Amino acid sequence: MARMTIADLQQMKNDGKKIAAGVCYDVQMTRILERAGVDLLSVGDSVSRTFLGMESDDEFSLEAMLLFGKAVSRVAERAVINVDMPTVVCNAGPKAVEEATRRIKEETGADMTKVDIRTQEEELFDDVLAVIGAGLPVYPQIGFQVFEPRHGGPEAHEHIMKWANAVQDAGAVMIDLTNVTLDIYADVSKAMRIPVIGGQTGPESDGRIYVSYSLTGYRADTIDRTEGPPTAARYIYDIVEKAIASVHDASWVAP
Q1: C-alpha distance from residue 191 to each of 12, 87, 146, 162, 208 (Å)
Q2: Mean pLDDT (the chain, rounded)
Q3: Half-sphere exposure (Cβ direction) of 71: Cα atoms closer than 13 Å
């Protein structure tokens, strides 16, 4: 299986082909996503909340990020790999980002790292430059927080276009644009030479990124969901409930 490169993602944009990205943190989901044909595996710092039960990404350390990044890169065979720069490192300044970038590159073998500068583009722009200076391609995340209404209108458009151009001119290889209206996704994607993807966009952009655990319903809070497709959590719950009941009533069969 030939390994994809950042140049391949760029060529997909040039050819008008859409990039499919999946956020994952573990070996099994990595293998599932790759078999399904994903182009980009993104080891997100959302693992802090999704898997580790932390209330804030700010509790999540570089050491923890490296652990999950290694797990994904250990088994990935085809897709480009991104390993997020933890928020706590981004907020610690360019020197900390530069040091962390070297560790991400050397210890995980990632192809790029995503630096989340949403709503803090002015303050954190130097973090983008620090990643490039440390020798790893950078994948900035710009835009707005997902728990807010979509941002649109002339002011948001101007803000996003300004920073999209800034990170592209600085040398970014891709942009994760978050929580803007579809017309802004469309305009930015057309204006940029590099791929622009997002988690809230349609085909207006160069691709879509899915948080695989939300996509598949591998979340305990979807067990009782009655609308939409069946969830992985419900499927797992039914198997486990039956197995536990068989133990309680002494009806299980030895393997």
Answers
A1: 16, 28, 23, 11, 18
A2: 96
A3: 18
